[in-house]
Amino acid sequence: xxxxxxxxxxxxxxxxxxxxxxxxxxxxxxxxxxxxxxxxxxxxxxxxxxxxxxxxxxxxxxxxxxxxxxxxxxxxxxxxxxxxxxxxxxxxxxxxxxxxxxxxxxxxxxxxxxxxxxxxxxxxxxxxxxxxxxxxxxxxxxxxxxxxxxxxxxxxxxxxxxxxxxxxxxxxxxxxxxxxxxxxxxxxxxxxxxxxxxxxxxxxxxxxxxxxxxxxxxxxxxxxxxxxxxxxxxxxxxxxxxxxxxxxxxxxxxxxxxxxxxxxxxxxxxxxxxxxxxxxxxxxxxxxxxxxxxxxxxxxxxxxxxxxxxxxxxxxxxxxxxxxxxxxxxxxxxxxxxxxxxxx
Length: 344
Known about the structure:
Residues 89-110 are annotated as: Disordered. The protein is α/β, with parallel strands linked by helices. It is built from seven helices and twelve strands. It has helices at 2-32, 106-116, 124-127, 152-162, 197-202, 300-304, 335-343; strands at 54-57, 60-63, 139-141, 167-168, 176-178, 185-186, 213-217, 219-220, 238-241, 255-256, 287-292, 315-320. The strands form four sheets. Strands 4-3-5-7-9-10 form a six-stranded parallel sheet, with helices on one face. It has a two-stranded antiparallel ribbon with strand order 1-2. Strand 11 (287-292), helix 6 and strand 12 form a beta-alpha-beta unit. The termini are far apart.
């Protein structure tokens, strides 16, 4: 019995000595490492010279001094190993323009969106008064004010309504209201930008925070960010807009319309080619686009990546690089060919 107790005590003592030995090894390794971590702040915008990073100066990457790690370094991918570009010839398009002070921060974008689209949850059941439509669907266009300049495109929209059987000159019978002020182009750099739209809309006698109103818009915001800043609050009005953002679009309430030019005819021409059981329609061209191919900024990556579907037969994409004053600075290998085909 005494022998068993002595054997048990010896085993326990040997185990304790082994644990103490391991603990001493860890303490010694810890003391050999330089204690520098207390100097590092927790904010990512500050860098200490002990960290390894690369500094870009005149497109030349120079390694800065680094700390000798006590542990094997992790092999992260180098910053120069970029994905293969989809564009032809490896050309890379800049997603942001060079003028930094003209950028709109994400916070400013949210502020603009929240200010203009305050009634994000508007639906026909909540922001439209169906009682005004009990006697029929009538559309009223506000009379233009003195000095109003209306673009040719917006005048076509108004004329098509005035010549329809739904138009009425009596606002008390109207189910839907259309503004006389031109809201198609809300780019502040555009010559067709209308000033003081907010005050003019809010002074309308039947505005009622936009209830039962329909607003048309093709362009919003300005270069380089092209935010959806209309310059006035939409309120409870329905918005018929081109290139609408999915964040701001109110389903079953707003209307998504195509972006059309001023050359678009007011009325359609002859009868179409669609006949019974004729799918797809027997037309020569399946898809046609002619416009500007932005070399930088929002939309440049998408338009530059679609050139490959142009086959010159039933799918025609004609684009030009001539957009802005400094387009030649961002000129790529396809610009000369695209500009030539666009001018034909």
